[in-house]
Specification:
Strand content: 15-25%
CATH architecture: Alpha-Beta Complex
Pfam families: PARP
Order of helices and strands: EHHHHHEHEHEHEEEEE
Structural class: alpha+beta
Helix content: 10-25%
Organism: Funneliformis mosseae (Endomycorrhizal fungus)
Enzyme class: transferase
CATH class: Alpha Beta
Number of strands: 9
EC number: 2.4.2.30
Catalytic activity: NAD(+) + (ADP-D-ribosyl)n-acceptor = nicotinamide + (ADP-D-ribosyl)n+1-acceptor + H(+)
CATH topology: Phosphoenolpyruvate Carboxykinase, domain 3
């Protein structure tokens, strides 16, 4: 399935027609006709995160394609809560810009498009099972939208890697098959919090782990993920010996301190995360 301009294994829900400035407007009167009705969203917010209504394509037209990509109802509920009254792709773009906190001496990021790849159904299935496991002991599984920077060698927008190929690049491999804990540290041997999968709340921090795409020197892609953190162990100290979160926690939260300038989160089970989308952007020079 593809909704891009060119044939591809990737899917995009909309062309990003509105400008960055337009996408940041929150006023009701500025919402596009495809936005989710505010009164319906207010009703959703009155319910708990676990009990909110299932996503109905007729109510949320922005989720029509997502229902064909992701088989996890729990994941789509989290995505609906994240999107609020916004179209999901516009919300992701806005989130990309608002969470970019690093100095812009290297350039200014401008989003080209948001893409979605059809993932293995097992990725959603194991996420659902892990969420159910967390809900047995926690009132809130603590799902956060987080960023992950990785290596993407292909052009991605018009010719992504074949997931069945042994030459599939890291980004396409993650989007199609999910994260693999055995690949921890393959790009960066220094493991501040041990052998886990690392995420950042700041898009700019994830960018520091991304590589230029498809032979270009100014085009990058980072991954937007939903991560079930469960109970976090918060620290400002390095813990490179970890292979799991300290008991009774499920993840590690590295706070800003003497070791970190920007916070990060680490999980030790790949079933705690679903790679949801890829954001491709160009770094424009000043």
């Amino acid at each position: 399935m593809s909704l891009l301009r060119r044939p591809s294994r990737l899917t995009s829900l909309w062309e990003l027609e509105s400008s960055d400035e337009e996408s940041t407007f929150q006023d009701d009167q500025q919402m596009s006709k495809h936005s989710f009705p505010r009164e319906e969203f207010e009703k959703m917010k009155e319910k708990t995160r676990q009990g909110c209504p299932s996503i109905d394509p007729e109510i949320r037209p922005d989720f029509t394609a997502l229902l064909k990509i992701f088989s996890s109802d729990k994941l789509l509920r989290q995505a609906a809560i994240f999107a609020g009254t916004r179209k999901i792709n516009e919300k992701i773009v806005d989130h990309f810009h608002t969470t970019w906190k690093h100095p812009m001496h290297m350039g200014v990021p401008n989003v080209e498009f948001v893409s979605f790849m059809m993932s293995d159904r097992k990725v959603c299935q194991r996420f659902d099972e892990y969420m159910s496991e967390l809900l047995l002991i926690l009132d809130d599984p603590h799902v956060k939208p987080l960023w992950h920077g990785t290596t993407i060698k292909c052009k991605f927008d018009d010719k992504p890697c074949d997931p069945s190929s042994t030459d599939c690049c890291a980004g396409c491999n993650i989007l199609s098959k999910g994260f693999d804990i055995s690949k921890s540290g393959s790009a960066n041997p220094f493991k501040r919090f041990g052998s886990g999968i690392y995420f950042a709340p700041n898009s700019s921090k994830a960018h520091s782990y991304a590589t230029p795409r498809g032979g270009s020197d100014d085009l990058f892609t980072i991954l937007f993920c939903f991560v079930a953190l469960g109970r976090c162990h918060t620290t400002t100290d390095d813990m490179p010996h970890l292979t799991d979160a300290p008991y009774p926690c499920h993840s590690v939260h590295g706070r800003v301190g003497t070791r970190l300038n920007y916070e990060e989160f680490v999980i030790y089970r790949p079933d705690a995360v679903v790679p949801f989308a890829a954001v491709t952007y160009r770094m424009d020079k000043w």
